[in-house]
Amino acid sequence: MKISVLLVGESWQMQIVETKGADTFSYSTYEVGTAYIEAALSTDEIAFTHMPCHMVQEQFPDTAEELKNKYDCVIISDCGANTFLLPAKTFLQHEPTPNKLEILKKYVEIGGGLCMAGGYMSFMGIEGKGRYNDTPVEAALPVNFQKNDDRVELPQGVEMQLDPRKHKIFEGLGKSLPRILGYNRAAGVKDSAEVILEYNGDPVISVMEYGKGRSIGYAMDVAPHWCPKEFCESKIYKTLWTNIVKWLAQKA
Q1: What is the pLDDT of residue 252?
Q2: How many CB atoms are located within 10 Å of the residue 21 CB?
Q3: pLDDT average, residue stretch 43-70
Q4: pLDDT-based confidence at 201, cuts 50/70/90?
Q5: Which of 19, 190, 204, 232 is least enclosed, having the fewest CB within 10 Å?
Q6: Residues with Cβ < 8 Å from 22, sequence gap 6 or more?
Q7: CATH number of the domain that 14 lies in?
Q8: Strand pairing partners for 5?
């Protein structure tokens, strides 16, 4: 049976205003950033599903058990905490709804695999608007979050040096990753977590067993701009994400 993976996030809408002399007009676009990771994780062994940000309130399961029955592991990427915490039924109609971040925590407790990937709306993100600090799911992840903007911008690009002996997810990767352009800086790691990749003392990839499940804090992005095309299009990218998913699903 294939490993079932759910990626939540990596979608956005843009409203653009153009001014040409005395005249102004606007238009909007909708885009997704899943092309690279979907290609990497659509294999004979893995089934990939994407849930865009705007579909979370309608499609995300209401119980940890339902989530576990559908998916072996969940990747959250560029989807802030408010998207999980403020469905329209609660925000507009003032009715109680299940806390989806509590559901994610319990999902790991009962055996699910969870990865928080970096980005402008992950960890704490730009201006702190990712807002995952002090939420229930923080307990199930290897890292503790900052309380403000946690981005580390690296416009010059840096290569991350690997120790292949550190962990199974580094098998077949060699001794370095292609250059990246940024990551999210965590406030620290849990006592039970293991940092397997760091940069300037910051945990870039950390892993943890939690309850019956596993989790990963992946501070880099899964797509541009922090993860440039040269990384996304490399064999290393595909191997790394395949290894991550297998480890999270307890198939490695």
Answers
A1: 77
A2: 5
A3: 97
A4: very high
A5: 19
A6: none
A7: 3.40.50.880
A8: 48, 73
